[in-house]
Amino acid sequence: MRAKKVIVIHVRDDVEKEEFMKEVQRLNLSAFVYIHGKLDSLKVNVQGTKDEIREAIRAIREAHKRVRGRLYPDRKGLFTYYPDDIFREASANISLPILLKTLELLGETVETKEDYIKTSMPWREIVDLVKRLSQNLEQIALQTTRQIREVVVPVSVAYDIDPEELLDMLVDLGLAEYKEDKFKYELIKNKEQALKELLEYLEGEEDEDRGHKEGGEPA
Fold this sequence. Notes:
Layout: E1 3-10, H1 14-26, E2 32-38, E3 41-48, H2 50-71, E4 79-81, H3 83-90, H4 96-105, E5 110-112, E6 117-119, H5 123-140, H6 146-158, H7 163-172, E7 176-179, E8 184-187, H8 191-215
Antiparallel strand pairs: 1-3, 2-3, 4-6, 5-6, 7-8
Helix pairs in contact: 1-2, 3-5, 4-6, 5-6, 6-8
């Protein structure tokens, strides 16, 4: 027997409304859902069997919770993101370790939970960040192993350095080598040590450049 139920979803502004509508459209629901309303109140009409309605309302409320989590920070100033939501919005697919390390290198606060992350970076910024990471990843994907990508890609974005230049830098520093038989760059040291030494080198370069600027050009 089919039934009908109406729930009201409150939104703060048009941005939240649009994000919520997008999330509902992505849901694969058995029930028929129709949403209408003005200003800050949206009426959600759900039609179907009792079980279909119950499942649809649960999914719709969860979608709204996810939207609010990524648009509005909590008391600690952190936004809540489900990685799949970010990757889908950015139309990109990168590994979570690459994203987390990049956020860390950019000085953002990051907390990892079981199936979501909390960070100080706002929604549109993190979506744009993932797009940039994806572009840099694509540039070196075929010639690198997963381990070296997790070093190069975050650093390339955080320090605004071409990823291929970083590959050469890793080789010059004795942290990686190019395997002719595999046509791939591989790390010689473990990922954590390679990243540590690469960052120390880059920070040393920055300090040297800063020293030259402060000291001025010789007469």
